[in-house]
Write a structure and sequence with these properties.
The chain is mainly alpha-helical. It is built from three helices and no strands.
Length: about 90
């Protein structure tokens, strides 16, 4: 999965591709906590940094989701056998 453009400039601060080790849950917690922290900040500069960082974690989540979309696009769907061989999808 490619590194989101928005986080590439921060890549040199971390081991190559290490952002891929975060789960959806990990990334979501960061988005939540950084957004919450922005509400507690006393300056617009601090708020802006927290929201910027939250956006970067959200971009990482989007990259993970995009990868799953690609995997699922190529994955066959199970066919429910109900007498009609054209029926696919959940019950």
């Amino acid at each position: 999965m490619p590194t989101p453009e928005s986080i590439k400039k921060h890549s040199q601060e971390f081991k190559g591709g290490s952002w891929r080790n975060y789960t959806f849950e990990d990334l979501g917690k960061w988005v939540h906590l950084l957004t919450k922290r922005a509400y507690h900040r006393t300056t617009m500069e601090e708020r802006g940094k927290d929201l910027y960082d939250a956006q970067q974690y959200l971009n990482m989540m989007q990259a993970h989701l995009d990868e799953h979309k690609e995997i699922l696009k190529d994955m066959a769907c199970p066919v429910k056998n109900s007498g009609n061989s054209n029926t696919q999808g959940p019950n």
